[in-house]
Write a structure and sequence with these properties.
The complex is a heterodimer of chains A (157) and B (283).
Chain A: E1 9-14, H1 20-27, E2 41-42, E3 51-55, H2 63-72, E4 78-82, H3 84-88, E5 110-112, H4 119-146
Parallel strand pairs in A: 1-2, 1-3, 3-4, 4-5
Chain B: H1 2-32, H2 42-52, H3 62-81, H4 86-106, H5 110-141, H6 146-151, H7 156-159, H8 161-174, H9 203-225, H10 231-251, H11 257-282
Helix pairs in contact in B: 1-3, 1-9, 1-10, 2-9, 3-4, 3-9, 4-5, 5-8, 5-11, 8-9, 8-11, 9-10
Classes of the chains: A alpha/beta (157), B mainly alpha (283).
């Protein structure tokens, strides 16, 4: 299971972000930071992803999208909320159309605050998520020994 | 007994070499983009990770098709490297490709289905040149049996320069490299997500990856055939060809399917048929 740590594939979703954090996520892929050194790939497909990066807060419009993306990711999986909007809603917290942070909709494992979050902080957040991913994989394995793994709303082959 | 040993060596060594080649590919690509790139063994880490992931399938047949894809790809390579019939190997390769398309079609997702349609178009584009290559090798050596072709000890490249160039052209499609990576876009965050492989996750995706390694080794074996009279030159030619494909991958943007079909057929009709015709008249 230790290979989870060596090849984390990432899915990036932009909630209602101003694009600031978005650009910083993409900056991680550039020659300057080059996260592919650690085997990190931006896959853009929930079914291939291990870690979901979300920037921006959630609202009524994108709640089903976020839930759907999360549901389509195969276990074990982790969620990283990037930027203060994704963490708590930030300055938009009280807006009538904003629900708040990502954890209002799906379970979040790592919070990376900042406006915008710096690439170094984002990479650090992903590295923290790797540790959590490892723990989840271990828990999943132990659960599988005790009883069949229950998977919600999808056929398990 | 010897054939059995060669086949066994192929079964074990092909995925190892294919994986290393994929790692080399990713490092060279990164260097071309002035990045450092992943470790050499990254493709193995990826596949081992995928094996440990949950296998989400939208229906019962999906993963069966992928298993068939892998099995027929291995059979194709075994036919070729055991020195069997080249024509049979090419037909088995097509059959394996069809299983991948069937798997993608069965998933019922728009991205996956567009990927499958594009894969069929690409198969239509490269298949003529692949068959002409087999015909050309037959004209030059008088046999379809790979073992006998190598035993001839003649530099086939001097008789078949056009066919070799045509083959290199369509290899870009087969390696799923950039101007022609229409069906499984190499970078997933684009218009058809991951095309063919969008709906496969975990172990099924790992199988597709391993089958692709087997396929790459088979195709490079085909390149080897043209230089087989002098093994050091052949190995150099194989490495140079692959490096050239990586170079093309990094310097060209993806084309439309019209272009892919038009130019693949144009290359097959001029370089391929021209070479075969020359051989015919000179004989």
């Amino acid at each position: 299971m230790s290979f989870l740590k060596k090849s984390p594939w990432i899915l990036h979703y932009d909630g209602t972000s101003c694009n600031g954090c978005d650009i910083e996520v993409l900056a991680c892929l550039t020659p300057m930071y080059d996260v592919e050194r650690f085997g990190i790939v931006n896959v853009g497909n929930p079914k291939h992803a291990d870690i979901l990066l979300i920037t921006g807060s959630v609202n009524e419009q994108n709640t089903p999208v976020v839930k759907n993306l999360y549901r389509q990711m195969p276990e074990p999986k982790a969620v990283v909320a990037i930027g203060i909007c994704a963490t708590s809603g930030g300055i938009f917290q009280d807006c009538y159309n904003v629900k708040g942070g990502i954890d209002k909709v799906i379970p979040v494992d790592v919070y990376v605050p900042g406006c915008a979050a710096r690439p170094e902080a984002i990479i650090d957040g992903v590295v923290k998520a790797l540790g959590i991913l490892e723990e989840k994989a271990k828990a999943l394995k132990e659960a599988a020994h005790r009883q069949p793994v229950e998977v919600e709303e999808s056929s398990h082959d | 007994m010897k054939i059995f040993l060669i086949t066994l060596a192929y079964l074990v060594l092909a995925p190892v070499l294919g994986g290393l080649l994929a790692g080399f590919d990713r490092i060279v690509t990164a260097r071309m983009q002035s990045r450092v790139g992943p470790p050499l063994f990254q493709p193995f880490y990826d596949v081992l990770k995928l094996m440990a992931k949950e296998n989400l399938a939208v229906n019962h047949f999906q993963n069966f098709y992928i298993l068939c894809f892998l099995v027929f790809m291995i059979i194709t390579g075994a036919l070729f490297f055991a020195g069997g019939d080249l024509l049979l190997a090419i037909f088995a390769l097509t059959l394996a490709g069809i299983f991948l398309v069937m798997g993608a079609y069965s998933a019922n997702s728009p991205y996956s289905i567009i990927g499958a349609e594009r894969e069929l178009i690409l198969m239509m584009a490269y298949e003529p040149m692949l068959l002409i290559a087999a015909i050309g090798l037959y004209m030059a050596t008088g046999t379809f049996i790979v073992h006998d072709m190598i035993a001839i000890h003649r530099p086939l490249i001097f008789q078949l320069p056009g066919i070799f160039l045509g083959l290199v052209y369509i290899l870009t499609i087969k390696f799923r490299k950039s101007p022609f990576d229409l069906s499984t876009s190499h970078h997933g965050h684009q218009e058809i997500v991951k095309g063919l492989t969008t709906e496969f996750s975990g172990p099924a995706l790992a199988m597709i990856e391993v089958a692709h390694w087997y396929e790459n080794i088979l195709l490079l074996g085909l390149v080897y055939l043209f230089f087989a009279w002098y093994p050091p030159a052949a190995v150099a030619a194989v490495i140079l060809t692959y490096f050239f494909e990586i170079f093309i991958d990094n310097t060209y943007a993806r084309t439309k399917w019209h272009y892919a079909v038009k130019w693949s057929w144009a290359v097959a009709a001029t370089l391929g048929v021209g070479n075969v015709a020359t051989l015919y008249f000179l004989r």
